Each structure stands twice: as C-alpha cells, then as structure tokens.
Amino acid sequence: MATTGRLINIEMEVGQSGGENLFNAALRNLDIAVFPAVIDRDLLDPPGSETGGEVYIPKATAINAWTGEEDSIAYYDNGYKFIQPIEGMVVYVTDENAFIEFDGTNWVFHRTSHLNIEHKTGAYTVLTSDSGKVFTNLGAGSQVTFSLPLATVGLHYTFKVMVAQEIRLDPQTGEQMTDPADGILASAGEYITANALTEFIHIACFTATEWDVLEVSGTWTEETP
Hints:
By secondary structure, this protein is mostly beta strands. Helix content is 7%, strand content 31%. It starts with 18 loop residues before the first helix and ends with a strand.
C-alpha cells in the first residue's frame, strides 16, 4: 500500500473496503504529530497505567512494548503506536517544561531563532524568569559571579565568556552541580568557573536540587568555596 512521505500514513485506494479505519488511524497520527506534547522522555518501559492519548519518547535501551523504538514518538491508543521523528520536528516535554527538537539523529533542546542575551559586568542573582537566557561577561573588568536560583525542574541557562575574566556559577546552599570534566555530581555548594574567551556552558535542572551540564565548550573547573 502507498503511504505518505513523512508520517507514513497508509493511503486509501479507490473502492477500498474499510477505508474508514485507515482514515481514522491517520487522524489519530495527525492528532499527535500536529502538537506532540510529550509526558516524559526518560523512561525505558511504558508506565502501565495508560488510558489513551498519552505520549512518550522512549529512552535507550527501551524494553517491552517500546523495544526498538528509542527516540520515536510513542502514543497510546489501545496499545502503543509510533511516529518516527524527522529532522526539524519540535515537541514539548511537559515534565521538563521545555521544547526539544530532532536534529536528524538525537533530540536536543530547541533553540529559538532569537536568543535572549544579557551581558553582565558584575555579580548577578539569576532569576527563575531568566530561564532560557544566555548570559555573558561582555564589558566586565573583573570576575562576574552568577548566583543560581533554586534548582527547579525545567530551568535552563547558558553562560559564555566574552572577555578574559572569570565567570563563576554558584549553586544554592546544599545544591549540586555536575562537574563538566567528568559528569559526576560535585559536592553540595561547590561552584564551577571558566575564564577563557569563547568558553560556554549550558546547564539545566532535571532533578530538583541538581544542575546538569547539557553542553560545554572549553575548561570549566569545579572549585570549593
């Protein structure tokens, strides 16, 4: 049977018996694909309490009903059905409060066409409302310390060194940051720092009280206060 080029919906044929079933299946596919709000993308196994309409992106290495469908858009409709992502597809992940985009190989955080960039020349307390912003130290003549807000799931920030002065990222008391060098959570309260031109880091919170490193360039080091 012929299928559509992107969502692989089966096309009806002239005089086909039961064509309404194909039509309804295509509608359900479109219902998900037009705006696929994903509940979670960190599960290996279906949660098992689905009633209909739930959407997930299975994580490697997926098992049971999701076996072999890593990175697919999995939706429940009397059993799981799957939509293969195509490059440029954007979905919203509700438990991360963030948009992600398929780059042809992986799901990555979606970057809007216009970045919200702010330059800071002195100490700054980062706000939850700043989530998604890019901060630099352009114009600074000395160290710029960014005091991070409480690590709340969904928050994410980018920091870039634009003059050869130190940028320091301070977590809240008792909270942890991933060490960019080894990917291991540092001790509570330890900060990270960089001071070479063009170094940048993108951090996000997936688990309360913890900051993860999503992207990094250059040498960001872990320091003890």
